[in-house]
Structure prediction request, 332 residues.
Amino acid sequence: MSNEMIRPVSGPIPKTGAGIRNLFGRFGVLPVFVIVLGVIAAITPALLDSDNIAQVLRQSSIVGVMALGATFVLIAGRIDLSIGSLLSLASFVTVDVHEHFGPVAAVAAALAIGGGVGLVNGLIVGYLGLNPLIATLAMMSLLQGVTLVYSGGADVYVAHPEATWFAFFGRGYLLGVPVPVLIFFLLTVLTGLLLHMTAFGRKIFAIGGNETAAAFSGINTHRTVALAYLLGGLTTSVSALIISSRVMGAQTNIGTGYEFEVISAAILGGTSFLGGAGTIIGTLAGVVLLSFMQNGLLLLGLPYYIQWLITWGVIISAVWVELAAKRKRIFQ
Prediction:
């Protein structure tokens, strides 16, 4: 078969667009969102008000902490759709345990549930070799069912929020900075060092880039993938502590939709949906930018559900730009 018969219809991107192509190939759709956010800030100066900034950063810490762990999973070439349901279950159990056994037991319960579910996902995907999309989608369903059975469909609240230090995680301040923001940035530093400065991080990149080559080079791909999911579960449990402490209660569906916000923020920050590329600082930027974008839309008077359209646009645009950069043409 001749080359003429298999040549793509669209053809390569002209050389005159090489600069733009390189820009999007390196930063994805992030520059576009920066420009749009600048326009919103010009229209709505309240976006950059100090109180509003503090509020947005506090709110973004929940998605942000989850996104840090999800970045490892995505770079490894996997995905976890169960983290939203895990957030619901962990939050509910945390508050319920707090009411029966106190805040220390509540913190331990949150970490145990997050780590346990993350590890199970890791074993199923890493060692059994199940498709991560199917495996975590099934885990999402399981966790939703467990949450409803455990709760009986009823919400739970801390009876005496003024009498416990548990509120520190979600409502506290340290040196004038909201504690959730400090937790987010502290974990950003720690996970950044883990991803970019350790052998474990290099293995994550190697597996996402070429898993077969990584296995032949002596990397235990099964264990590394399992640990990535474990980390994702633990960061979700930290977010559960933050959100349940902030609300001082939990609803059975409190984590609904968070998985898509987390994935959107990570890939907006440059993490490859196909694996093998990404940075923690990029995820930080993606989380903050997406949070301010959502807040700006609300300040413009647009309804809350517009955020779902933005989330859809982020995922579709980022993956499309990444594929276009890899194949050197816009269309298939």
Confidence is low (pLDDT under 50) at residues 1-21. The longest strand covers residues 156-157. Strands lie at 156-157, 173-174, 177-178, 249-250.
